């Protein structure tokens, strides 16, 4: 299967999932009649999925036959490293808690995905800590959602 066809099939699949998610989200009964209700974020995610599908299809059609045949060096270990980080994050979440697991996950993902010549461990650690703290504050304080606590 050509890369163009694969991208178009992926975009169509993503658009179908987004449309299905939107239809399901429309059926969620609102607990509150004003403001943001329980169906708002699923509808927002479904819109993001359809928008992503449109972007993928548009970029695939734009670059039609301009496919690079060479893969960047080290891309295979980056993919497996990113996958291993996700698996480790899911395993560590109930044990270490949301803050510690998320900060470690973000640091590892940034480090794995960054090119070797642009790796800045201190900057990555700072970004991971600030992002984990902000995400925790948004979901815990802002939305009042319970998150895995862990020892921290």
SSE diagram, text form:
Layout: H1 3-26, H2 40-62, H3 75-96, H4 98-113, H5 121-142
Helix pairs in contact: 1-2, 3-4, 4-5
Describe the structure.
The protein has 2 domains: 3-62; 75-142, no CATH class. The protein is an all-alpha fold and 152 residues long. It contains 5 helices and no strands. It is flat, with a radius of gyration of 19 Å. Mean pLDDT is 82; it is low at 67-71.
The whole-number mean of residue pLDDT values reads: 82
Proportion in β-strands? under 5%
Question: Termini distance?
Answer: 48 Å
Structural class estimated from helices and strands = mainly alpha
Summarize the structure.
With 152 residues, this protein is mostly helical. It has five helices and no strands.
Defining traits:
152 residues; mainly alpha; 2 domains; flat
């Amino acid at each position: 299967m050509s890369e163009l066809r694969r991208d178009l099939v992926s975009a169509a699949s993503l658009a179908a999932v987004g449309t299905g998610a939107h239809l399901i989200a429309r059926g969620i009964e609102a607990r509150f009649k004003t403001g943001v209700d329980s169906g708002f974020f699923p509808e927002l995610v479904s819109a993001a999925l359809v928008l992503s599908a449109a972007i993928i299809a548009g970029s695939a059609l734009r670059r039609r036959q301009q496919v690079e045949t060479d893969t960047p060096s080290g891309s295979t270990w980056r993919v497996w490293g990113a996958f291993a980080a996700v698996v480790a994050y899911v395993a560590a979440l109930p044990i270490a808690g949301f803050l510690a697991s998320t900060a470690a996950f973000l640091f590892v993902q940034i480090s794995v995905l960054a090119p070797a010549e642009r790796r800045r461990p201190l900057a990555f650690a700072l970004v991971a800590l600030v992002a984990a703290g902000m995400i925790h504050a948004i979901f815990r304080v802002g939305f009042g959602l319970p998150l895995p606590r862990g020892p921290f």
